[in-house]
Amino acid sequence: MRFHALIRTHHITSRKKVAALKRAADTHQCFVLLRSGGCPGIMYVEGRDQTNVESWVTIVRKLRYKDYQLVTRPGVLEAEGDTEPLPSLEDGLSEVDSVKEFGELMSKRKVWNWWRKGMGYA
Protein backbone atom coordinates (compact mmCIF):
# COMPACT_ATOMS: atom_id res chain seq x y z
CA MET A 1 0.00 0.00 0.00
CA ARG A 2 1.21 3.51 -0.84
CA PHE A 3 0.20 6.96 0.34
CA HIS A 4 0.41 10.32 -1.42
CA ALA A 5 -0.39 14.03 -1.12
CA LEU A 6 -0.47 17.11 -3.36
CA ILE A 7 0.61 20.64 -2.46
CA ARG A 8 0.25 23.82 -4.51
CA THR A 9 2.17 27.04 -3.86
CA HIS A 10 2.64 30.35 -5.62
CA HIS A 11 6.08 29.35 -6.87
CA ILE A 12 9.14 27.25 -6.02
CA THR A 13 12.36 29.14 -6.74
CA SER A 14 14.50 29.04 -3.59
CA ARG A 15 17.33 26.52 -4.04
CA LYS A 16 17.81 26.44 -0.25
CA LYS A 17 14.21 25.33 0.23
CA VAL A 18 14.52 22.77 -2.57
CA ALA A 19 17.63 21.37 -0.85
CA ALA A 20 15.64 21.11 2.40
CA LEU A 21 12.85 19.28 0.53
CA LYS A 22 15.39 16.86 -0.94
CA ARG A 23 16.86 16.12 2.50
CA ALA A 24 13.35 15.58 3.87
CA ALA A 25 12.49 13.20 0.99
CA ASP A 26 15.63 11.17 1.71
CA THR A 27 15.05 11.21 5.47
CA HIS A 28 11.41 10.16 5.24
CA GLN A 29 11.94 7.72 2.34
CA CYS A 30 9.51 9.45 -0.02
CA PHE A 31 9.33 10.00 -3.76
CA VAL A 32 8.85 13.72 -4.41
CA LEU A 33 8.11 15.50 -7.69
CA LEU A 34 8.36 19.30 -7.90
CA ARG A 35 7.25 21.74 -10.56
CA SER A 36 9.73 24.52 -9.86
CA GLY A 37 10.90 27.74 -11.44
CA GLY A 38 7.62 29.59 -11.84
CA CYS A 39 3.93 29.79 -11.09
CA PRO A 40 2.33 27.58 -9.94
CA GLY A 41 4.62 25.58 -7.70
CA ILE A 42 3.41 22.00 -7.43
CA MET A 43 4.63 19.29 -5.07
CA TYR A 44 3.64 15.63 -5.22
CA VAL A 45 4.81 13.23 -2.52
CA GLU A 46 4.40 9.45 -2.45
CA GLY A 47 5.58 6.94 0.13
CA ARG A 48 5.08 3.49 1.58
CA ASP A 49 4.10 4.81 5.01
CA GLN A 50 1.44 7.44 5.78
CA THR A 51 3.48 8.78 8.70
CA ASN A 52 6.45 9.49 6.40
CA VAL A 53 4.25 11.32 3.89
CA GLU A 54 2.64 13.37 6.68
CA SER A 55 6.09 14.21 8.12
CA TRP A 56 7.29 15.42 4.72
CA VAL A 57 4.16 17.58 4.32
CA THR A 58 4.79 19.08 7.78
CA ILE A 59 8.30 20.09 6.72
CA VAL A 60 6.91 21.81 3.61
CA ARG A 61 4.40 23.73 5.74
CA LYS A 62 7.18 24.91 8.07
CA LEU A 63 9.13 26.31 5.08
CA ARG A 64 6.35 28.90 4.74
CA TYR A 65 5.83 28.90 0.99
CA LYS A 66 3.71 31.74 -0.37
CA ASP A 67 0.08 30.66 -0.95
CA TYR A 68 0.76 27.18 0.52
CA GLN A 69 -2.26 24.92 -0.10
CA LEU A 70 -2.45 21.27 0.87
CA VAL A 71 -4.93 20.52 -1.92
CA THR A 72 -5.03 16.77 -1.27
CA ARG A 73 -4.31 15.51 2.23
CA PRO A 74 -2.10 12.44 2.71
CA GLY A 75 -4.16 9.40 1.85
CA VAL A 76 -4.10 5.97 0.24
CA LEU A 77 -2.97 5.93 -3.39
CA GLU A 78 -5.64 4.33 -5.57
CA ALA A 79 -4.25 3.62 -9.03
CA GLU A 80 -6.39 4.56 -12.00
CA GLY A 81 -6.96 2.67 -15.21
CA ASP A 82 -5.80 -0.82 -16.07
CA THR A 83 -4.56 -3.45 -13.67
CA GLU A 84 -0.85 -3.04 -14.48
CA PRO A 85 1.27 -2.61 -11.36
CA LEU A 86 2.19 0.88 -10.18
CA PRO A 87 5.59 2.17 -11.30
CA SER A 88 8.42 1.41 -8.91
CA LEU A 89 8.79 3.78 -5.99
CA GLU A 90 12.24 5.36 -5.94
CA ASP A 91 12.95 7.59 -2.97
CA GLY A 92 14.28 11.06 -3.65
CA LEU A 93 13.34 14.33 -5.31
CA SER A 94 12.87 15.11 -9.00
CA GLU A 95 12.09 18.45 -10.62
CA VAL A 96 10.29 19.40 -13.82
CA ASP A 97 9.96 22.80 -15.50
CA SER A 98 6.41 22.71 -16.84
CA VAL A 99 2.91 21.81 -15.70
CA LYS A 100 2.54 19.74 -18.90
CA GLU A 101 5.55 17.61 -18.00
CA PHE A 102 4.27 17.29 -14.42
CA GLY A 103 0.91 16.08 -15.75
CA GLU A 104 2.58 13.50 -18.00
CA LEU A 105 4.42 12.09 -14.99
CA MET A 106 1.16 12.00 -13.00
CA SER A 107 -0.35 9.95 -15.82
CA LYS A 108 2.58 7.53 -15.73
CA ARG A 109 2.15 7.19 -11.95
CA LYS A 110 -1.55 6.38 -12.57
CA VAL A 111 -2.93 9.36 -10.64
CA TRP A 112 -3.87 11.63 -13.58
CA ASN A 113 -7.57 12.17 -12.68
CA TRP A 114 -6.77 12.53 -8.95
CA TRP A 115 -4.13 15.17 -9.81
CA ARG A 116 -6.46 17.07 -12.18
CA LYS A 117 -9.17 17.16 -9.52
CA GLY A 118 -6.72 18.37 -6.86
CA MET A 119 -5.42 21.11 -9.14
CA GLY A 120 -8.95 22.27 -9.96
CA TYR A 121 -8.71 21.28 -13.63
CA ALA A 122 -11.57 18.78 -13.48
List keywords for this structure.
single chain, alpha+beta, Alpha-Beta Plaits, 5 strands, five-stranded mixed beta sheet, globular, 122 residues
What does this protein look like?
This protein is an alpha+beta fold. The protein has a single domain (3-119), classed as 2-Layer Sandwich (Alpha-Beta Plaits). It contains 4 helices and 5 strands, in the order βαββαββαα. It has helices at residues 15-27, 50-62, 99-108, 112-119, and strands spanning 3-9, 30-35, 41-47, 69-76, 92-96. A 5-stranded mixed β-sheet has the order 4-1-3-2-5, sandwiched between helices. Strand 2 (30-35) and strand 3 (41-47) form a beta hairpin. Helix 3 (99-108) runs antiparallel to helix 4 (112-119). 30% of the residues are buried.
Summarize the structure.
The chain has 122 residues and is an alpha+beta fold.
Order of helices and strands: EHEEHEEHH
CATH topology heading: Alpha-Beta Plaits
- For the secondary structure, the number of strands is 5
Question: What top-tier CATH class fits best?
Answer: Alpha Beta
What order do the strands of the largest sheet run in, or round the barrel if closed? 4-1-3-2-5
Share in helix: 25-40%
Radius of gyration: 13 Å
What's the pLDDT, averaged over the residues?
A: 92
- Helical region count? 4
End-to-end CA span: 26 Å
Give the count of structural domains: 1
- The secondary-structure class comes to alpha+beta
Q: What about the largest sheet? A: 5 strands, mixed
In percent, how much strand structure appears in the residues? 25-35%
Which spans have pLDDT < 50 for at least 5 consecutive residues?
none
What is the correct CATH architecture?
A: 2-Layer Sandwich
Approximate shape: globular
